[in-house]
Specification:
Blueprint (H helix, E strand, L loop, with lengths): L1 H29 L2 H21 L4 H15 L3 H10 L5 H7 L1
Length: 98
C-alpha cells in the first residue's frame, strides 16, 4: 500500500540518520575507512537482495530497510577518505567526483 511504502522509505532514512554518525565514529576509532566502506556496501547489497527476492513479513521488511539505510550511510565515509587523500589543490574536484 502507499502508506506502508512511505513508511518503509522513512525507515530507510532513519537507518541513514542512525548509521552516519555511528559508522563515522567507528571508522575514526579503528582508522580503517576502507573496511567500514566494504562492510556497509555488503550490508546494503544483502538488504537489497533480501528486499527484492525474498517474501517476508512486514516486520522483517522494516529490519531490511533499516539495514539498507545504515549501509547507505557508509557512503559518507567516502567524503572523509577523499578529504584525507586528495592534495589541497585537487580537493574540490575529488569531492565533486565522489
Amino acid at each position: 500500500s502507499p502508506i506502508f511504502s512511505s513508511y518503509m522509505i522513512s525507515i530507510a532514512w532513519l537507518g541513514y540518520a542512525i548509521g552516519s554518525p555511528i559508522l563515522g565514529l567507528i571508522s575514526d576509532l579503528l582508522k580503517k575507512r576502507k573496511l567500514i566502506m566494504w562492510v556497509s556496501s555488503i550490508l546494503s547489497l544483502t538488504a537489497l537482495i533480501s528486499i527484492v527476492h525474498f517474501p517476508y513479513s512486514k516486520e522483517l521488511l522494516v529490519f531490511w530497510f533499516l539495514c539498507l539505510g545504515i549501509g547507505a550511510s557508509g557512503q559518507g565515509i567516502g567524503f572523509i577518505l577523499m578529504a584525507e587523500t586528495c592534495q589541497r589543490s585537487n580537493l574540490a574536484a575529488g569531492l565533486g567526483l565522489n
